[in-house]
Write a structure and sequence with these properties.
The structure holds two protein chains of two kinds. Helix content of chain A is 81%, strand content 0%. Chain A is mostly helical. Chain A has two domains: 1-95, Four Helix Bundle (Hemerythrin (Met), subunit A) (Up-down Bundle); 121-165. In chain A, helix 1 packs antiparallel against helix 2, helix 2 runs antiparallel to helix 3 (50-74) and helix 6 crosses helix 7 (136-160). Chain B is globular. Classes of the chains: A mainly alpha, B mainly alpha. At the A-B interface, helix 2, helix 3 and helix 6 of A face helix 3, helix 4, helix 5 and helix 6 of B. Chain A: It catalyses: a quinone + NADH + 5 H(+)(in) = a quinol + NAD(+) + 4 H(+)(out). Chain A: It is a multi-pass membrane protein.
Chain lengths: 165, 318
Amino acid sequence: MSWAIAIWAGALALAAAALAVTRDSVVHALLLLLGALVALAAAFFALAAPFAGAIQLLIYAGAVVAVFVFVVMTVEAGAAARARERALFAGAWQLPAAVAALALVPMLLRLGGAGAGAPAPAGAAALGRLMFGDWAVVTELLSLLLIAGMIGVRVLRRRQKGGRP
Amino acid sequence: MSVLVTLWLSLVMIMALLVAAGVFTWVERRGLGFFQERLGPNRVGPFGFFQWIADTVKLMFKADEVPPGGDRLTFRIAPALAATPVLAGFAVVAVAPGWTLAALDVGVIFILAMLALTVYAMVLGAWASRNRYAMLGGLRAAAQMLSYEAFFGLSLMGVVMLAGSLELGAIVAAQEGLWFVALQPLGAALFAIAGIAAAHRLPFDLQESEQDLVAGFMTEYSGMSFALFFLGEYLAVLLVAALATTLFLGGWLGPWLPAPVWFGLKTGLLALAFIWIRAVLPRPRYDQLVAFAWKAALPLALVNLLATGAVVVLKGGA
C-alpha cells in the first residue's frame, strides 16, 4: 500500500516538475514546483522517512519557494518584458537540461540495485547524533554556506545604499 | 489501524474541526462584543449561537468572482491552500494516550511545516488579485513568515530537549508531574508570540490590517473563497492552541476528568486567550514587528536553547 502511494506521489512530482519547466508564467511554474516538492514529501512519508518529508516541507516548500515567490511577484511581468527575456534566454535551457540528464544516468543505473531496508525510526536523539555526530562536519560546512549568503546580502545592500553599511 | 479505519477517522476529525472552527467564529464575535461593551450576534438561535450556520449559508450563495486582470487559476487555488495544510497538521495531534491519527516521529516539525505552508495562500491570493492593497498584504505575509518561522521552531526546541522526543504523545507523557511551562517560561513566552504570528492573528495580522490595507491579501475575495481564508485562520488558531497545550501545558494530563476533556479544556482556554489578546492589544508598525523578530526574539530563543542544553547535559540526561 505505502509503495503504491510512494510511486503515485513520485509520478505526480515528476509530472508537476515537467509542467513547471514548460510554463509561460513564472508564478504558475513556482506553484507547480511547490506541488512537485509537496508530492516528493508525500513520497518520503510513504517510504517511512518522515524526517526527510517534514524537512522537505518546512525548508523547501515552506521557506525556499516562498522566497522565490516573494521575489518574482515584485518583478513586473508585462508582455514586453517577457518577450525581451525570451530573446535573452533562447537556447539557455540546454545547459541545465544537459546537467539534469547527466545526473539522471547514475540514478537510473542504481534504480535496479536499490531496495535497501526501511530506514530506522527518526527519534530526536538519533537525529541529533546523526547531524552533530556522524555528519557534524557536513552540518558545519552548510552553516558556512549560510554565513556566506548573509555576507553577500550585506554587501549587496551596501552597494545599493551608496557605501553606508 | 487499517487504512479504511484511518480514512474514516480522518473524515470524522475533519468534520469535527470544521464545526469547531464555525463555533469558534461565534465565540470570537460574542467575546469581542463583551470586550467592546456591545452584544455581538444575538438574534439567530439561543445567544445567537446559530449565527455561524447562517453566515456559512449566506457565504455559499454569494457571488464569487475573479477580479478583472487577475490570474484565474492561482486565484482559485490560493484559498484552498489556506485551510488544507492546517487540517493535515491536526493528524499528528495527540488528544489522549494513543488517540492520534498518526503518531509521527517528527510530529512537531510536521506541524511547523504545515503552518508554514499557509503563507502560500496569502502570497498567491494577493498576487492573483492584481490589486495593490492585496499585493502589499501578500508581501507582508511572506516577510512575516520568514521572520517568525526562525524563532518559532527554536522556541520549542527546549521542550524537545527536555522530553527527548519530537512526537507529541511522548512530549505529553514526559510532563507527568511538572508541566514544561514551569521549566521553560522563556520558551513558552516566545512560542506564544510566534504562535500568534503563525496563526496571523492580531496584533500580528499586518497582512490584512484593515485600517491601512482594506483587507490586505483577501481584499478581492468574496463568497466561499473568502470563507476558506477565514476557515484557515481559525483552524490555525486551534492548531497553535493544541500545540501549545501539548508542548507546555501537559496535554491531556490532569486530575479527575478524562484525558480528552482536559485536552479540549486547555486548548479551548488558549483559543479564548487568542480572542482576549486580539481585543486588548494594538497592532505594531510593520518594521517594528520584523525588527523584534530578528533582533530580540531570535537571540532570546538561542539563549534559551543554550541554557536548556547546558542544564540537560549537566544533569546527565540525553
